[in-house]
Design brief:
7 helices; eight-stranded antiparallel beta barrel; elongated; transmembrane; binds protoporphyrin IX containing FE; Lipocalin; alpha+beta; transmembrane helix
Amino acid sequence: MGIRNTSRGYGRVARGFHWLMAVLILAAIGLGLYATSLPAASDGDIARLFGVFSIHKTLGVTLLALALLRLGWSLTQPRPAPLHPERRAETLLAATVHWAMYGGMILMPLSGLLRHASAPGDFARILWPFGQRLPGLPVDQTVSAAFSAMHRTGWILLALLIALHMAGVAKHRLIDRDATLARMTGRGDLPEPPVGPRLPGFVAPLLALAIWSAAFTFALTRVPEATAPMPTAPAPVSAAEWQVEEGTLRLSVLQGASPVSGTFAAWTAAIAYDEPSRTGHVEVSIRLDSLSLGAITKTALGPGFLMAEAHPRAIFEADILPEGADHVARGTLQLAGAEVPLTLPFTLTITGDTATMTGQTVLDRRDFGIGAGYADEGTVGFGVTVDVALTAKRQ
Ligand code: HEM
Ligand code: HEM
């Protein structure tokens, strides 16, 4: 058998792609599952977790390049003709599974890459020189969660397809005892396939497309609540109101000796501020499950820490008061089932109808009963630094 496919079997290039990618795809699935099962409790854990994810992602993008080359090659090749053309349903099933596996070979790494490139916070890098973001793709928790759901549903579909494919090969080998496997190994005599009815070429690719569309639609209906738009809290007082245009809400904490920091993607602030008296009121509502804190996000949201399921929001309600040339917001923070007084010093600059503010405060996690299982600072520091920066427009 030469380089190209014939009606009797696959050529050397198709066979090379097939076996190389079969091994690498199974390895990518194994590595992905292994990576998501790793603990993230200590610095050492996190270093290992990032290491495994980096290998997974780098292997994944290599597979994307291979899949595109393979698809390009296979579209220029004849397909070996079915050995049992009279078994129409079986022939259609095999062809649909082949096309759906091509779909998976492209959509799996693509969804992984898009999830990676849109994820806020710290993450394991792809080991390549092309940067970690994609032009035009927003860095946004909601977008990233959608691609994550596709990736996590997609691998299950791909694994099912591979299992079906392997079961089909076993059936040909053990029950039909025909040359199906030999056509892909290139060993043995390959018979000329019988002439028989042929399916129109578009049926199997269309079915494969329908299967992937259904899987991804299902995945998107299961994207966690974090992606639902958040209702804006009502403005509490009647002084001039300000609408937040953009902002970041960041927290940092020491884990062992090294600082970890992350951001909340979904929060709203209702701000009223009266310029002559330099006083006002603010109510900030933060959806905890929009936190991304790198590899330890899940732990941070879980029991013992922020308990996001039982207490999905944190609310900071405060009066704004002048303090020297700057301001403070003095009020209370409700978090993880506790309500604790909190003061946030901040600087405010108003130019025309635009206000920019930056502020920083430090909370003690013990006041909120967070991380009560870590009674000393060896693993998680007591102080949690909160940084806020926002730009608001006068309404
Ligand atoms: C053929 C290629 C790929 C396959 C078969 C694959 C498979 C998997 C599997 C099985 C998981 C575990 C899912 C779970 O535990 O629910 C996973 C997770 C993950 N993969 Fe991949 N992957 C591929 C390519 C990529 C690429 C190219 C990237 C990024 C550049 C990537 C990024 C991720 C991430 C970030 C996760 C963690 C799950 C999440 O947070 O969404 N993957 N992958
Ligand atoms: C390791 C177990 C595997 C075995 C024994 C195996 C065997 C075979 C055989 C015998 C064929 C030819 C079938 C025919 O002509 O109808 C074939 C084709 C094919 N296999 Fe596999 N395969 C395996 C894994 C995989 C994996 C993991 C993938 C990718 C997800 C895959 C994707 C394909 C595709 C797309 C074709 C169609 C031919 C082409 O366009 O390359 N196989 N396989």
